Amino acid sequence: MLDLAILGILHESPMHGYELRKQLAVKVGALRAAFSYGSLYPTLRKLQAIGWISEGDADDEAAAPAGAEVPPMTSRRGRVVYKITAEGKERFQELLAQAGPETFEDQGFGVHFAFFARTDPATRLRILEGRRRKVEERREGLRDVLNRAAERLDAYTLELQRHGLDAAEREVRWLEELIASERSGRTPGPAPAGGTEGMKPHSDTPERT
Amino acid sequence: MLDLAILGILHESPMHGYELRKQLAVKVGALRAAFSYGSLYPTLRKLQAIGWISEGDADDEAAAPAGAEVPPMTSRRGRVVYKITAEGKERFQELLAQAGPETFEDQGFGVHFAFFARTDPATRLRILEGRRRKVEERREGLRDVLNRAAERLDAYTLELQRHGLDAAEREVRWLEELIASERSGRTPGPAPAGGTEGMKPHSDTPERT
DNA sequence: GTCTCGATGTATCGGCCCGATACATCGGCG
DNA sequence: CGCCGATGTATCGGGCCGATACATCGAGAC
What we know:
The structure is a homodimer.
Chain A: H1 2-12, E1 15-16, H2 17-28, H3 37-49, E2 53-55, H4 59-63, E3 81-84, H5 86-97, H6 106-114, H7 121-148, H8 155-183
Antiparallel strand pairs in A: 1-3, 2-3
Helix pairs in contact in A: 1-2, 1-5, 7-8
Chain B binds a DNA duplex through helix 2 and helix 3.
Protein name (chains A, B): PadR family transcriptional regulator
InterPro entries (chains A, B): Metal_resp_DNA-bind_regulator, Tscrpt_reg_PadR_N, WH-like_DNA-bd_sf, WH_DNA-bd_sf
Keywords (chains A, B): Coiled coil
């Protein structure tokens, strides 16, 4: 999962770890907590080892004229800038397209959804429907508890079930809207107030070199 | 976290692992997925090793007259029934009362809340307010992104932020209601339709031996 | 009668990810 | 000039998950 997220962020522009984590936080922060450094740095090494990302050659390095580098200080451990490789871009597309069971879990869904702008429409639909199924099952489970075992639970536990059920119902409705949107070829968003132009989605940004 | 959950479930009645997991699923299943066996069994061993729970002496064992045991079969690995010890009960109360930072995280909050019926009112209030603070911070973060960086995000990411923001706002409102309930000494539940009597919470069930 | 199948039941292993911690640099402010 | 908070890289222990293996049991198929 973190692999996918890192590739997705680096796909937009090269970056060092610290900045990467901040971008990650705004990208996927809505559905899961930001990944910690304890996962981030090891994963960066792993991705580098298998050649999906590479070190250096960021544009601020390139901008500096040779010979006039920043002062090395005493054993400077300098920022390490990572960029995605050509192979990394291929793998990213593959990972985006394949939707395993973990894709429908909270975490996995959040990450996949965050990169929907780069996902092909058929896959988007598959993921949304898989997620919906998952949440529906959860919802049914909660309904069963509330209907069949309510008398054996204390008031606080019941209240928790109710809140969970409400959240599940809302998410299903949200997913329904998104699915309807997808099917009609629209871009998601609030119903356009007056204009009919479909809020340009950052124009996809395929390359920015 | 799992320690607390196990102690809480076993506090109600002795049980073997399989049943324990199912109870766990209905108790805390509203806010987090059920704990897997990969965590459950090692944790049961750990708790047994430190003496907070013990093996055997379930009531169905006690009910069988000596000498007439169930046929041992070929090397039967039989169900192992766990029960909470006196020390375990003490530790359970301690764990319930102390509210560290992880208590306000999704997982921790869910587990603590599930046992609110056994938690003293002051602690309940502390936990609810801590959780509210946490969710408020999350909500503010999402609002900032939507206000300040919206133009740099694609439509799908924006939609994700909106959904997350909505969920956060709802949870804060939910918590507000619970806090108000606590302060007025009421038990949680839906606003009483016509009557004012406050839906008895299963009468607290302090002991059931 | 027996055979298969799904539910019950216990258990481990590899791996992902988190929280805490350590350490170093940098800019600004008193 | 010194302190402090933000930036920045990195590791370590531990919690939890998903997959897997294995064994028993009741019930329905044939």
